[in-house]
Structures are given as structure tokens and as C-alpha cells.
Amino acid sequence: MRKPIIAGNWKMNKTTAEALEFVREIRYGLNQLSQQVDSVVCPPFVALQAVSEALQPTRVGVGAQNMYFQEKGAYTGEIAPNMITPYCQYVILGHSERRAYFEETDEAVNKKVKAALAHEIIPIICVGESLEQNEAGETHSFVSSQVIAAFEGLSAEQAANCIIAYEPIWAIGTGKSASAADAGRIIGVTVRGAIANVYNEATAQQIRIQYGGSATAANIGEYMAHPDIDGALVGGASLKPDFVEMVRVTAELTE
Length: 255
Prior knowledge:
The protein is α/β, with parallel strands linked by helices.
């Protein structure tokens, strides 16, 4: 039985003061649900320490939104793995916005995954196709290739410590979302299938796979009712108290 995980990606939102005010508002509700559901908040870098300290008495996880794969050096503007380890248990890697706006490649994502695991940070690896690829029938081949590239050079044991977020690019921040049936099919057949081909079926069944893309309190129940969907990577809805409701709905479905 895979424990569901709901992670909130705040993106470039909330100052440190706003982040602190918000986590103080939601931490009790999230902590009460932590036995049934893992919940994670991913604030901007500048708020990581403050949010981590505010959540320290709870079982709510903290994640970074990105990191570089080098330990240190002349990489202006980047954040090294050991800079986030005091505050984070998770890190989002390969988000479509990073791939699109900052030209991150599959190879770079793979290096980041390896660096995260080396520092005992759980990577949340994002994969997903564009609307054009979806309409051209290329979802299976494209998403499979992203999954295979992300796990290049990893053992099955290392892979089992990762989380994947399937986020169709056309559904991120658009108000559109894949149906639970379509998302579940891609997660179950394409994503788990790729993992099984690289490793084995047992490893594919171990890895938790989230859905992301306009997930809200109104539709989370549909996604979480699907047996192949193990949670959600939440964008805009994670910036509001509705995030607690999403975790609560998920918890109720696990009972």
C-alpha cells in the first residue's frame, strides 16, 4: 500500500513573512492528517529556513523547488544540495517550467536526481507532455523517454526512493485538467510501465506517482480514487487553506 503524498509547489509566490503566516495557519490541520497522508510544502528558497523551523514540531514535510547538481563553485544564482539539506526532505526536479523557461534537459534532471539521492533528499521528478504532443498521440513515447532518462544510472533501490509527478503541461495553471481515468491510465501504463521495463514490476509498484495540473479541492477526490494515482503536486490551490481540504479528502479515501 503506497502512502499518498500531497505536495504544494508555491512557485514564485509568498514573501518569507507571508509564508510564515500561511504555514502557521495550515500546519495543525496538516499534522492531524499525517498518519494517512504525507503532506509537503515547497516555498521559495528565501523562505525555506523560516518555514522549516515553523513546521519542526509537526510531521509536515518541506521541499525545495529546485537545486543544482554541483556541490559548490562558480554557478551564480544556483543553490547546492547541501544548502537545502538542513531544511528540506524533498526537492522538485524537472518541473516543466524549469524545462521550458530555463532550458533544463533530461540529462540535467538526471544529474540533479543523483545529487539529491546522494544527499538523502527525496526527489519529486516531474514529467509530462505538451498539448501538441498530446494531440499528436505522442504522450506515451515522450513521457516514457522522460522517465527512462531521469532514472539513467540509478539502481532499483535508489529508484524506489524517488517520487514521480505526472503533470501534463497543458493542464498546469490553465484550469484544464486531465480526467482521472486518463491521468490514471498514463500513470499506470506509461510511467509505471517505463519503470518496470528499466527495473521490474515490483519496483514500478513501489514508486509513488502523483498527478499535477489544475488539481483542486473540488477534483482531488476523483484523482485519489484511482488506484494508480498516489497523490498530487499542487500549484495554485496550495497557496490557499484549501490545501488542507485536499489532504483531508485524500485521507478519507485511504480509510
